Recover the amino acids of this structure.
């Protein structure tokens, strides 16, 4: 089937991107760049969507059905980022608007951040840094700032996609025993390579692991997957790391469990109501609060920009989109 193409699409970018990406986009398309780096409000998003062929949003733009309804000529939402939970992909699909994302290029950097948190929380690294800066390091002592050994512990990964697998590879190098829970069991060759134990029941996995790392997308079925009841299944010396989406954890329940000492600590890069953070987490010494920096490297952000441009070029040239995102239940064969 011949795909629709458009030779010089009007592209609107909602946030500032790396300067070399902005320059190249400006060369390739009729591009409107964002003058400041403020997230667009719903009225601005609607105005943008009504006046372009391609919208390039980020995680900070809520593109719901109401915003999509404002589209007139919009053909493509080329998301700058892998997660698309901020976009109503089904509403876009119904209108024949394509959605693409930027998977793969941020996998290793996000896994590095997850691993950094897996090491830093049990070893109280950030807490120690704060103490030193606050003048509370009075010298070494045999019992000062004891944490927990990482080697030999059980790591449970929720979401064994690209990032989960990259975390598992790193975890082996640190002597962790890898377990995972996923909607679907990973193919045998992946399980073998990662030496990972599959748990079809999340509850059962939570009772046995020492560290939980979350790498699954935010969907209706993963919303508050880690809730009060599940937190109670975890041991008081266990840790939680989240580099996927805040909505996967009931943040109030997590703050409550941590405040009561029912968990050993947490390393969070994402929050339920970003950029707000539950106030009870703020003063807890055993929690690292990273500001959504999983893919925040020059390299990832450049490669994410490259992917966005390649997806827009697919529209221009009438090729199949390399990173097309479909709504749940749709299949590629029926989708074009
Ligand atoms: C991105 C992310 O920075 O790609 C993702 O899904 O969570 C982040 O690392 C962000 O989404 C950019 O839109």
């Amino acid at each position: 089937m011949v795909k629709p193409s458009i030779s010089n699409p009007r592209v609107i970018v909602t946030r500032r991107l790396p300067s070399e990406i902005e320059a190249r986009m400006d060369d390739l398309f009729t591009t409107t760049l964002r003058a400041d780096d403020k997230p667009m409000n719903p009225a601005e998003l609607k105005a943008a969507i009504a006046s372009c062929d391609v919208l390039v949003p980020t995680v900070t733009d809520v593109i719901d059905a109401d915003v999509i309804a404002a589209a007139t000529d919009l053909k493509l939402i080329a998301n700058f980022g892998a997660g698309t939970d901020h976009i109503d992909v089904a509403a876009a699909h119904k209108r024949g608007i394509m959605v693409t994302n930027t998977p793969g290029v941020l996998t290793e950097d996000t896994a590095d951040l997850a691993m950094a948190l897996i090491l830093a929380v049990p070893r109280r690294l950030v807490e120690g840094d704060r103490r030193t800066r606050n003048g509370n390091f009075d010298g070494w002592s045999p019992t000062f700032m004891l944490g927990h050994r990482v080697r030999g512990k059980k790591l449970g990964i929720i979401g064994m996609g690209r990032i989960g697998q990259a975390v598992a590879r790193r975890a082996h190098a640190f002597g962790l025993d890898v377990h995972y829970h996923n909607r679907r069991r990973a193919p045998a060759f992946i399980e073998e390579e990662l030496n990972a134990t599959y748990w079809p029941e999340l509850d059962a996995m939570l009772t046995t692991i020492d560290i939980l790392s979350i790498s699954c997308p935010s969907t209706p079925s993963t919303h508050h997957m880690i809730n009060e009841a599940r937190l109670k299944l975890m041991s008081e010396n266990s840790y939680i790391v989240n580099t996927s989406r805040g909505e996967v954890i009931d943040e109030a329940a997590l703050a409550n469990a941590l405040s009561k000492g029912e968990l050993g600590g947490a390393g969070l890069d994402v929050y339920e109501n970003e950029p707000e953070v539950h106030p009870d987490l703020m003063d807890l010494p055993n929690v690292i609060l990273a500001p959504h920096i999983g893919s925040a490297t020059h390299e990832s952000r450049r490669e994410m920009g490259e992917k966005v441009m390649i997806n827009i070029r697919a529209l221009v040239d009438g090729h199949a989109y390399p990173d097309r995102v479909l709504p749940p239940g749709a299949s590629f064969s029926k989708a074009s």
Observations:
- The chain has a mean pLDDT of 96.
- Residues 10-105+297-317 form a domain with the Rossmann fold fold (CATH 3.40.50.720).
- Residues 298-317 form the longest helix (20 residues).
- Residues 58-59, 80-83, 106, 294-295 surround 2-keto-D-gluconic acid (CB under 6 Å).
